[in-house]
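REVIEWER CHECKLIST
Item 1: Sequence provided? yes
Item 2: Single chain? yes
Item 3: Sequence as submitted:
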Amino acid sequence: MTAESSPESYNSDYLPVDLDSLDTLEVLDTTHTTTENTVAVVSLMEKCAVCGKPAFCYNYGVLSCNACKMFFRRVEVDKITYTCKYWNKCYDGLEFVDVKGTSPRCRACRYQRCVTVGMKYLPPGKPELELELINQADLQFTSLIGNLLFMDSRRRHKISNCYTPENCTLKEMVTRSKGSRMTLKTEDQRVDLHEWSFFGIYSSVELFMSFDFMDTICLEDKMVLLQNFALKSMLFTGAMRALAANVDRVMTPDGKDVYPDVMYKMGIFSADFLNGIRSRLVARLMELKVTNEEHVLLNVILFCNPALRPLSPATIKIITARQKAYSTALFQYCSLTYQQAGPCRFADLLALATILNKQHEDISYLTTLFQFYVPGLEYKKLFVEVCHK
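Item 4: Structure as written out by the authors:
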C-alpha cells in the first residue's frame, strides 16, 4: 500500500475504464446480420458479485460495486454483528442480494453473501496476507494462459508435422473416443492446398473438443459451436502464422501462398476480393501486434458464444461462465500489459470478431463459386460442413 492510499482505496484493484464509453462497450455485437453470427462478449461493465449492480473494479478480491465494498469494510472495521430474523435464508435461491427490496433487506445475509463470494478484509499492517491473495490470483491467471498456450502449440505442431487420410464428418469427430487420429508425416508426404484447409479445421475441432467443459455439453450443442467457429479459428491461426513469419498474407504451413496468383488470372473473382481474403485479417493483426497470449484467449472467448442458436439453456449457462472467465483473463492481461490503454486494447481485440465473420463469409462464397466453375473439385466432408453451415 502506498502512502497515498486511503482506507477506501486500500484492498481495491482498480481497473481504469473510460466510463463515458461504457454504453457502447456493454455488449460488443460483432455483426449486424444474423443471430447465429452475433457474438455476445462479456462487457467491460461487469456486475457486482454481491448485489448485481454495475461494478468497475475488484475490492477485497471480488468484483464489486462501491456500495458493497463500503458495507463490507464498515462491518469488518467496526466489528459489527448483524443477526438475521429468518435463519440466514433471506437470499437463498437468488443470484444476488435483493437490492430492489422485494424480499427483506437483511444486512446479516448481505454480509454473509460478501463472505461467500470471496471477500477478504486485509487489515493494514499485514502485507503477508495481501501477498498471499495476490499470488493465488496470479497463479490462476498464469496457469490459465499457460494451459491455452500449450494446447495451441500442440495444435500448431500437428498441422505442420502430422497427417491423416481421413474424410470424416464433424459428427464422426464429435462422437468418437478422444485422441488424435493424426500421425507423423513421412518424408515424401505431399499435402495439397485443400488438404491444408481440412487439417486446419480438423485440428481446431480437436482443440476445442479437448476442453473439459465440452464433456458436459450435448451432441447437438457441440455441433452448433463447432460449425460456427472451427473455420474462423483456422483462419485466425493462419493469420497469426503469417504475423509470426512477418508476411503480409496467409500462407500454408509449408510456406506456399494459400491463394496463388493463378487465381487472379481466372477472372472469377476480383483482385480486391482475393486481396481481402488473404490479407485483411493479417494486416489488422500486424497493426495491433497481437500476442500469442491474446490470440489463445480471444480464440476461446469467441468460441464460447452464448448468442448462437439453437443452444440449450444448460449449454448457454456453461459457455457464458467460461466466456466470462476467459474475458476477465484477457482484460486483466490487457490492463497489466498496456496499463491505461488496457480497456481500449481489450475492445480492439474483441472487434477482430467482425473481421473473422467477414472472412468466413468470403471463404464460403469463394468455395461455392469455385465448385461451380471447377465441377470436378471435391472438398472433404468436414470442410464443407463448417464452411457452408
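Item 5: Key structural point noted by reviewer: DSSP finds 14 helices and seven strands in the chain.
Item 6: Recommendation: ____
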